[in-house]
Amino acid sequence: MDLRSVVESLSLVNRTQVSTTHCTMIYQGYGHPFVLVFEDSKITERCEFATYVNLDLDPDNYGFDLNQEEILLEGIIKADVLYDALKDLKDINTEEIFIYASTRDKTNNVKENVLAIVAKSEMGISTFNLPNDRSILEKLHIKSSEKVDVSCYNGILFCLVTRAMKLSSKCKFKRDESLLSINMLSTYGNDIPKDYYGTVFEFKLLQQMSDWLGTIEDYMKDHSHNQSGPQHIVQVHNQGEHFEELEQDDDDDGVAIDVPVFL
């Protein structure tokens, strides 16, 4: 069905509602319309949407299924912390986003979980070191024997995920050799019943190759010590050049952020 029509009807109800509105969804199967029924204390509205079959899509082979036997990276983190790190990336015209994760032994066989978002724009590279406190980063598992994982994604597409992330409480992510799956749990809403466990948004993004993968991994191995607050401000002009440390910020806001100097 045409998603734009559904979104428009939902927007109209949201703008005109004066009290709690209940929505009932009805679909009786192939050949029948998809129906939304909106009910409040004064009026009942019924919207029917024609459905059709897209012959160009094979429902049994969308190509967006994770290989559950070959999961290379898996983790769970609080969605609001991840949202705070990602919300401004669109404004700096992010071209590529890298996810860096490490569960290497730090000292005396004590494992240190490190999760960082690295954003590459035409002006430089921004790194966001996320807190590794167990109450925030609940789980981080890497299959590789080196216990380091780096992957790259289209910056514009990745930033679209933040809209759902803003409404969510937890984010579960996992990837195989070619695909990243992001599941977000949302309990957002008014008058939520006690037995409501939430809604899960799932986004799947194809990974992309990048000449920067090796450079990002080498840099983060030496500069990914998780500390509270921003650690360094760095800028990279060309591939292969070293990262230039420009300034240190001692503010403590729970998320370590490296931003290009032009900000």
CATH top level class name of the largest domain: Alpha Beta
Say which CATH homologous superfamily of the largest domain is assigned.
DNA Polymerase III, subunit A, domain 2
**Beta strand %:** 35-45%
The separation of the N and C termini measures: 43 Å
**Biggest β-sheet description:** 5 strands, antiparallel
Characterise this structure.
The protein is an alpha+beta fold. It has two domains: 3-49, no CATH class; 68-238 and 245-258, Roll (DNA Polymerase III, Chain A, domain 2). It contains five helices and 17 strands. The chain is elongated. It starts with a helix and ends in a 5-residue tail after the last strand.
Highlighted features:
263 residues; Rad1_Rec1_Rad17; 17 strands; DNA damage; 5-stranded antiparallel sheet; elongated; alpha+beta; DNA repair; 2 domains
Element layout with pairings:
Blueprint: H1 3-16, E1 22-27, E2 34-39, E3 44-49, E4 73-78, H2 79-86, E5 96-102, E6 105-107, E7 110-111, E8 114-121, E9 124-130, E10 137-142, E11 148-154, H3 155-159, H4 162-165, E12 170-175, E13 179-186, E14 199-206, H5 213-223, E15 233-235, E16 244-247, E17 256-258
Antiparallel strand pairs: 1-2, 2-3, 4-10, 4-12, 5-8, 5-11, 6-7, 8-9, 9-17, 12-13, 13-14, 15-16
Keywords: DNA damage, DNA repair, Nucleus
Subcellular location: Nucleus
InterPro entries: Rad1_Rec1_Rad17
